[in-house]
Amino acid sequence: MPGGIWVYAEQKDGKLKKVTLELLSAARKIADEQKEELCAVLAGRDVAGLAGTLGEYGADKVYLLQSDALENYTTDGYTSAVTALVREHQPSVFLLGYTVLGRDLAAHVAQRLDTGLFTDCVDVRLEDGQLVFKRPIYAGKAFFEGVCPEARPVMATVRPNVLPVNPPQAGRTAQVIEVSPQPGSIRQIIRDVVRQVSTRPELTEADIIVSGGRGMKGPENFRLLEELADVLGAAVGASRAAVDAGWAPHSMQVGQTGKTVSPTLYIACGISGAIQHLAGMGSSKYIVAINKDPEANIFKVADYGIVGDLFEVVPLLIQEFKKLKEQG
Amino acid sequence: MNIVVMLKQTFDTEARITLDEKGKINREGVSLIINPYDEFAVEEGLRVKEKSKGEVTVVSVGEAQVQEALRQALAMGADKAILVSPGGMEVDEYVTATILARVIGSLQYDLILAGWRAIDDGSAQVAARVAEILGLPMVNMVTRLEVGEGSVLATREIEGGNEVVEVPLPAVVTAQKGLNEPRYPTMRGIMQAKKKPMQKMTLQDLGLDAGQVVPKVRAVKYYLPPPRKPGRIIPGEAAEAASALVRALREEAKII
After folding, report:
1. Model ipTM over 0.85
2. All structural domains of chain B with their residue ranges
3. Which of A181, A255, B75, B123 is the most buried (most CB within 10 A)?
């Protein structure tokens, strides 16, 4: 039996990333169709406790790579440890999340294994016995579908927040296989880690995003969007115009030269809707636009639009959502 | 300090994408730019060079029109350019990296810079693959770079924060937005760029035979996303509209 369908189980601070569950659900289907086993690779320090969850979400086996050297992600350490494991078991498919960690690890591992890698996929399906990978290109202005005919494993990173998660099966367990990792010599020395303390969700994983553009008029006004975001449990984003003006950090930028997001609800405040912005958020399930200019491009993609002054509308929305929350 | 910058020419960010009659991305009449992330890499290369002696070489894989992008990097202040033509062959990230690593391997270098991704295919793979082929350490998505004696200290973006990573030279570093503000070429720079060396190479020149440049992945099709269904403008005064919007999100869309 070939080495199976593999998923990289990304965790941060001892918690599995949501995209890991999305990957397991997609991979479970492929594993069943191909009659292969579904294996998760779990790496870090003191992460064994997460293996149970991986089993409940569909993993048959969990390869557990635990070591002090893997406490923090380093390109060299993780690439060497994961590559060694893949070489030993030779899976046919290896999926990772399209995250800061996932895309760095995937690219290095793919090259060491001399194989192909599809980045930022939004769909993976089996067609005539071959996996077809769908990915947006030009930041969503077009789509590409491709195959990796020969090299194995075929690798892909998958965009968070796009694929559905199957409900967990209580009591389902995975066989846990402890592997002593071979991180090799690690050339990246981490000198410092600065975490921004935020109670808001990660932009690329958020279900709701409240985003501001040039119409915000200044950095101080993003407070208003933060307030709306906190009522909704949302993340805050910004357009390139707002970032270039210095009103918001680049880590908040949504668009072709920023992050690509697919939330359930995207609320665009004072954003005109330049092509490069639409490219980054056009796959949102619902788009709400608030803009003074009735001709603004953003209204062409918005499901609901309000033509009006955001400084008047947003506070009213905050009130309305608060009311709704109180009603439960 | 000799620096190599890997550069890709891409469509302008405002370009509209259409398909040609073969169902591929239509390149006709689209204005082309240096991939914005690679432009940060060029700028950073120039800043490092200005502090230490050495040269900045820009390299790219592509057809003749890429010379325009390379010429712009030369006008910004890079010293020489190398363009490898794949001769109309299909390339993927694996092939591009194989070619770039072959070119760079023949140069003197201490630091290799590139954008962390290109805005067209957004694969974010080529720099990592080049680092692996050349056996070099890499730091991805860097927003601040300090070059020291024999090593660099790079601040990189991670989820929910930043980390500072030290790697020994030679190394590959990829640029994230925020690293710097790229300069505009001066008139003098543009004039000088015309006289700077632009070396054009083929795969044969690099000693690569057809068997070494076989793509790992193959495109099956390209298509455009379906247009979004037109939505509706919620009428009324601000208060009325706000309350109608919340109601619509709750009752129609059922997402709140």
Report:
1. yes
2. 3-212, 226-256
3. A255
